[in-house]
Amino acid sequence: MGLRRAGRKARKHNDIINSAHFSRDERLVVTASQDELAKVWDINSGAMVPLQKRTTALFSAEFSPRDDNLVVTGGQDHAVTLWDVHLKNSRVLGMHTAEVRQAAFDREGERVVSASVDGTAKVWDVRNPAQTLLVTLTGHQGALTGAGFSPAGDRVVTASLDGTARVWRPENPPGGYSHEEKLHYLKQMVEKSRLPR
Questions:
Q1: How does pLDDT run across 87-146, given as a tens digit for each residue?
Q2: Closest to 104 measured CA to CA, from 88, 92, 121
Q3: Which residue range is the domain that position 49 belongs to?
Q4: What is the CA radius of gyration of the chain?
C-alpha cells in the first residue's frame, strides 16, 4: 500500500496506512501506519521525512491548519503526540487509557481533540505545555472511532461503536481568563446531545 502520484513511484510504508492528510498548501502529505511510523512526504519531489518511530501502531496523523511544521498523531500507545517536522522532535500532549483512534486540530491550530477506545474524547491546549488537558468528554457507551471540531471551532462531534454520534459544546471563554477559570468554564459548558438516527 502506498501514496501514488501520476508518473512517480508509490510512497511506501511497511504495513497498513491508517490515515493520510494534506498540509494547508497541499505540498505535503502526512501518513500514519501500523509500522509504527508517521511520514511526511513532499508530493512534488518525492522527498520523505520520517517522524521519530513509536513503539506501537499509529492510527491518525494530521497537520496543523496554521503551521505545516506541526503534526498531531494518535496511536496504540494511548498517547496524543505533537510533532515538529522541521526539528524532528515531539512532545506528548497527554494520554488516554486505551489506544487513540483519531487526533484532530481545530481551525486555529490551538486545540486538539482526540478520540479513544477508552470511550472518551479529550480536548487539549496545544499552546500550553504545562497543563494541556482542557476537558474530557464522557457519555458514550462504547469505544470512540473518531472526533473533530466544527468549522467554527465551537463544537466537537464524536463517533462511537455504540451506534451514536454526539455533539458537544466545549466552548472557550472570552480572553483574559486564568487557566483555572477557563477550565471551570469549559466543564460547565459541555453540552451532551444525541444526533437523530
A1: 878 899 999 999 999 999 999 999 999 999 999 999 999 988 777 899 999 999 999 999
A2: 121
A3: 2-194
A4: 17
